[in-house]
Amino acid sequence: MRSALLPLTADAADPEVMRAAVDATVGRFGRLDAAVANAGSATADGVVDGDPALWRDMVLTNVLGPALLVRASIDALKAARGRIVLVGSVAGFVHTPGNLYGATKWALTCLAENTRRAVTGDGVGVTLIAPGRVETPFWDALGGVPGGRMLTAGQVADAIAWAITA
Q1: Count of CB atoms within 10 A of residue 102's CB?
Q2: Which of 67, 127, 146, 153 could connect to 163 by a Cys-Cys bridge, CB 3.0–4.6 Å?
Q3: Is the CB of residue 156 less than 8 Å from the CB of residue 133?
Q4: Are 59 and 107 in contact (CB under 8 A)?
Q5: Residue from 113, 105, 41, 62 nearest 84 by CA
Q6: Which element (helix H / strand E) includes 160?
Q7: The overall pTM is greater than 0.85
Q8: Which DSSP symbol is given to 127?
Q9: Which residues contact 90 (CB under 8 A, 6 or more apart)?
């Protein structure tokens, strides 16, 4: 019996790698029912006082990566009448002074809506999940986990699973 999972490690900002990941998935399972863009990164600085050398990878991962996944997967998702799930952030709706990470999540929010308008007529669903703070290693590079109540990674995963199966 084949595993229901195909774990892949990939550079989300590399169009050839994203295409290869989609092709490997379709080759293994015969179709693609869902594509989830969940990669993300942040820097602890801002556009007013930050280091531009640190921003490139964040912008490529948070904005270009999801767009490349949409592009690489759209034909297979149309064939399966599947779903795209983009994992954004509350930062994609709430302004934070000087925060470039938030700007990348605004871009992802826009990408979700623009994609939805482009593909729902072809039977492809698009869901944006925009959690608040989630307790993950994401915070390690930002000085540690902030105080207060946080979501768990499992709660976000449950929301993704619901979006895919609902």
Answers
A1: 20
A2: 127
A3: no
A4: no
A5: 113
A6: helix 153-165
A7: yes
A8: E
A9: 130, 131, 132
Residue type, 40: G
Query: Which residues, 6+ apart, have CB-to-CB distance to 120 below 8 Å?
Result: 126
Q: How far apart are alpha carbons 50 and 44 in whole angstroms?
A: 8
Secondary structure element (H or E) that encloses residue 134, with its range: strand 134-135
- Give residue-wise pLDDT tens across range 64-105: 999 999 999 999 999 999 999 999 998 889 888 888 989 999
Which domains, ranges and CATH numbers included, belong to the chain? 15-165 (3.40.50.720)
Q: Is the pLDDT of residue 34 over 80?
A: yes
Instruction: Show Cβ contacts of residue 154 under 8 Å, excluding neighbours closer than 6 positions.
Output: none
Residue type, 95: H
The vertex-99 CA angle with 93 and 100, nearest 5°, equals 90
Q: How many Å is the maximal CA-CA distance in the chain?
A: 55
- Helices 100-119/65-80 angle, 10° precision: 20
Are 79 and 121 in contact, with CB atoms under 8 Å apart? Answer: no
